[in-house]
Amino acid sequence: MVQFSQETYLYDPKMLMQLDFHRSPAKFQPFISAANPGESWMKVRPLKDTDYDRGFLQLLSQLTHVGNVSRTQFLTRFSQMKASGDYYVTVIEDTRKGEIIGAASLIIERKFIHDCSVRGRLEDVVVNDTYRGKQLGKLIVVTVSLLAEQLGCYKMSLDCKDKLIKFYETLGYVLIPGNSNSMTIRYDEAPTKRNSTSAGVVTASSSSGDSCQTNSQFYNFFSPFCY
Questions:
Q1: Among residues 77, 225, 60, which one has the least CA distance to residue 158?
Q2: Angle CA(128)–CA(131)–CA(136) in degrees, nearest 5?
Q3: How many CB atoms lie within 10 A of CB 91?
Q4: Contact in structure between 92 and 139 (CB atoms under 8 Å)
Q5: What is the rounded distance in angstroms from the CA atom of residue 188 to the CA atom of residue 196?
Q6: In a structure prediction context, what are the per-residue pLDDT tens digits for the chain, which is 227 residues long?
């Protein structure tokens, strides 16, 4: 295992220890939380600038295309995120291996509406498929959702594939009738492919990758998050 003399957190890890998991409608069997994730070798924490060497990008590649990101690129983006103060990338580490096995990002949007309030977005949720059965998907999503409330977000939103709607509903997210569409313009594709991809957003049966998603919002058990 690689030893690091100095590391920097993306945000204050003490914030995670203050989260009250009893506020979530998620059912954990047995009960777990960010402070007590169920295994002594498991740790829920903010992303660190040294997680390039703990397989963070390799984990993200289980979710989507990452590309050939160099260490310099990783550190530059980490510094930009930390400086903005609006990125809360949260990970689960297997401390036995020094490996990142789960991750999710809370991204804060600063608004003029709702008295200059802030909105949270849930992005890039992924758990290493070899760690299934340990409730890690629920754990990482509930962690960042509770964190959004703690940060004063008036709502929390996400996009997900149709097959994941039931999962997110068990965590308190709901579909909004008449307002449950996700639409995308892709700038990293050729125009012809982009147009066909956009058309695929309209039909729920489309299988066009990232664009085939359904918009959900955080359930009203957190009253500030309601539409």
A1: 225
A2: 85
A3: 23
A4: yes
A5: 14
A6: 566 679 999 999 999 999 999 999 999 999 999 999 999 999 999 999 999 999 999 999 999 999 999 999 999 999 999 999 999 999 999 999 999 999 999 999 999 999 999 999 999 999 999 998 999 999 999 999 999 999 999 999 999 999 999 999 999 999 988 888 888 898 988 766 655 544 443 333 333 333 333 333 433 333 333 33
Contacts by 96-101, CB closer than 8 A, 24 or more apart: 96/41, 97/1, 98/1, 98/2, 98/53, 98/54, 99/54, 99/55, 99/128, 100/51, 100/54, 100/55, 100/56, 100/59, 101/59, 101/127, 101/128, 101/130, 101/131, 101/136
Q: Could you count the other beta carbons within 10 Å of the beta carbon of residue 74?
A: 17
Helices (H), the chain: 14-17, 56-60, 71-84, 113-116, 136-150, 165-169, 191-200
